[in-house]
Amino acid sequence: MNNSPxxxxxxxxxxxxxxxxxxxxxxxxxxxxxxxxGDENDAPDEEDLQQExxxxxxxxxxxxxxxxxxxxxEHNITHWPFRSWCKWCVLSRALGEQRGRARQDEVxxxxxIIGMDYFYLxxxxxxxxxxxxxxxxxxxxxxxxxxVQQLMDDKEIVKCLIVCDYTSKAVFATVIGQKxxxxxxxxxxxxxxxxKWLGYSTIIVKSDNEPAMLKLxxxxxQRLRVSLETVREEHSKEYDSKAHGGTETRIRSVRMLFRTxxxxxxxxxxxxxxxxxxxxxxxxxxxxxxxxxxxxxxxGRTPWSTIKGRQFNGxxxxxxEMCRWKLPNKGPAARNRGNMEVQSEExxxxxxxxxxxxxxxxxxEGIQGSRSLTRVPFEQRWSLEAISAIAxxxxxxxxxxxxxxxxxxxxxxxxxPRHEILPVRRL
Length: 427
Ligand SMILES: [Zn+2]
Prior knowledge:
Blueprint: H1 29-37, H2 46-52, H3 69-78, H4 87-95, E1 112-122, E2 125-127, H5 129-136, H6 142-153, E3 158-165, E4 171-175, H7 183-198, E5 202-207, H8 211-227, E6 230-234, H9 237-269, H10 278-294, H11 303-308, E7 322-326, H12 340-343, E8 344-353, E9 358-362, E10 367-370, E11 374-375, H13 384-388
Helix pairs in contact: 4-9, 7-8, 9-10
This protein binds zinc ion.
């Protein structure tokens, strides 16, 4: 038996009972009934209770803490970590699965092991190959494959590529497979850029045995030999099934954040964004980047800090926001706030070009990079017209806006915040 006093110390001033302070007490049922039945006058005061014996403490269900406007504002930038008070986080989780499964398959690796796989954007969200077939009720046979190809041609499915580093947990994702551009060259370059960013000199490249992916890996490996010390391809059946599982886990981890950021963006513009629209290609890439920046592993480090040796310290805006940036080739004198109007340009924030450390913006002419980012007041932040007109893609940067594009499907539009909100400085 526990010999320490079970009676909690209660001061004469009332203190809130916190869930963390609840103790097991052997309280008498009679006493509890008294308290419950008593009215204002005959309820025993605390001193009586202390004299009479133990107190049955109630266990409080955790009460959600209301965030401040500033906290909401900051959270809306990344939607990370999951917050129970955030509508978009909760909706995404309700539709999908729990976050956090990414750690299950993790094995310590001393060399860079890169996993690659295709995945797909469907009306349901982000799917791996087998998940997508299940969702579409198709078999993994010639007929199923033909149907998938048909749906891709009809822009109802978008093919994507994920590259992940098993060591740092960094992920890179991009849309590929849209008609009219060189998939293979774009994909190979994307893989090479990712490996360059990761900066290892010894790597093992893993992929499944799908012929198309194998070819891609071979081309990438061939080019990598120029700059990297050792590249080994691993294609044994056993090894690959593990690699595939690992990659699928990464795809799932991208899925939920992508869904959250997308539904937040849609609620700001009041429209559902069609699956093939260029802004979703940008959002997909950014989702992976954001995950590298904000998702801490079991060692407490983010992939970004593992690779770069320090945490990402750039300022961020919410994806899809109208932002301003300073025009290039200006000296320190250009930082005069009074001249902001003539020295800055505006466009839609599309994320980060991680290889050159620049923000990406969609402008009337196409995509533009800059090292500066300034947010605008809430009322000017969300432009349905500017977002729907984005025509430039990660594989075709200089495509002017297309004002003909109209998003047909409405979604409930979020009301602007009640209070003025300070700009977010950093993560
Ligand atoms: Zn959220």
